[in-house]
């Protein structure tokens, strides 16, 4: 009985761990539109509640550690200032020097790309190419925090002449969640498609198997179930396999006997 308890505990622990991992972690987030993406475990990151639709930036003139200012608006392009490079953009760099202020576009909404960075966090990037040899890229890291509505911090350029400008959004909208019914992100994932195909194959297997056994082989009762002997023996085989594996693991220093 002790062995059965150990097996049950380990199985339950693994099940909980797999469930939690599937709910909170992902390795890819496929772009749905410029402010939302669908993770590979069927969850959604949607920044649309943070959008400013007035033509201005939701996060405006955020000062970076380098001294430059940065503006960013998810989902909808904005204009920082007329007659500058920052017209109809997703992000803008405001470079202040002396009496002169310069504005640099950091990409529009169409250039938005979602990807996982080296810290395993999701980020959205925007690319502007006023000069083909010197693209300017805005990188907004998305940090999940259910207690925050939305706070943007800016680091500035990641390195001399790198053309990459770093920002970080801390928000509850940066968290991956189950898509709302009717959302544009409620599409089928690869896992869902595989599951549907599997279920269809199971149904076809049962229907065809029962039909063949009943009408071609004239079987009756439980014998109409396809491969009845195999399926009734399977639980016992699985149990024996599990018990065998755990009995070996519990024997410290055990060795297989030589043939």
From TrEMBL:
InterPro entries: Autophagy-rel_prot_27, Man6P_isomerase_rcpt-bd_dom_sf, MRH_dom
Alphabetical keyword list: Autophagy, Cytoplasmic vesicle, Disulfide bond, Golgi apparatus, Membrane, Mitochondrion, Protein transport, Signal, Transmembrane, Transmembrane helix, Transport
Membrane topology annotation: Single-pass type I membrane protein; Single-pass membrane protein
Compartment(s) where it occurs, according to its Swiss-Prot or TrEMBL record: Cytoplasmic vesicle membrane; Golgi apparatus membrane; Mitochondrion membrane; Preautophagosomal structure membrane
Species of the source: Patella caerulea (Rayed Mediterranean limpet)
MRH domain span: 33-177
Protein name: Autophagy-related protein 27
Residue intervals passing through the bilayer: 6-24, 187-208, 228-249
Pfam families given in the database record: ATG27 (PF09451)
GO annotation, biological process: autophagy; protein transport
């Amino acid at each position: 009985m002790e062995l059965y308890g150990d097996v049950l505990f380990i199985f339950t622990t693994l099940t909980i761990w797999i469930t939690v991992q599937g709910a909170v972690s992902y390795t890819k987030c496929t772009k749905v539109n410029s402010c939302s993406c669908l993770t590979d475990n069927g969850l959604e990151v949607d920044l649309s509640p943070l959008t400013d639709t007035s033509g201005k930036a939701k996060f405006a003139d955020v000062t970076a550690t380098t001294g430059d200012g940065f503006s960013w608006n998810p989902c909808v392009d904005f204009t920082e200032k007329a007659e500058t490079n920052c017209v109809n953009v997703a992000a803008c760099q405001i470079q202040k020097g002396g009496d002169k202020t310069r504005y640099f576009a950091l990409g529009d909404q169409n250039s938005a790309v979602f990807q996982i960075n080296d810290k395993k966090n999701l980020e959205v990037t925007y690319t502007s190419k006023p000069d083909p040899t010197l693209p300017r890229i805005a990188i907004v890291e998305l940090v999940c925090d259910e207690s925050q509505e939305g706070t943007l911090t800016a680091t500035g350029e990641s390195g001399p002449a790198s053309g990459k400008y770093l920002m970080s959004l801390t928000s509850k909208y940066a968290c991956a969640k189950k898509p709302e019914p009717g959302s544009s992100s409620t599409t089928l994932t690869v896992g869902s498609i595989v599951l549907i195909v599997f279920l269809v194959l199971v149904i076809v297997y049962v229907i065809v198997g029962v039909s063949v056994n009943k009408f071609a082989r004239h079987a009756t009762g439980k014998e109409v179930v396809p491969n009845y002997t195999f399926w009734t023996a399977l639980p016992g085989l699985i149990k024996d396999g599990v018990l065998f594996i755990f009995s070996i693991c519990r024997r410290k220093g055990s060795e297989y006997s030589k043939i």
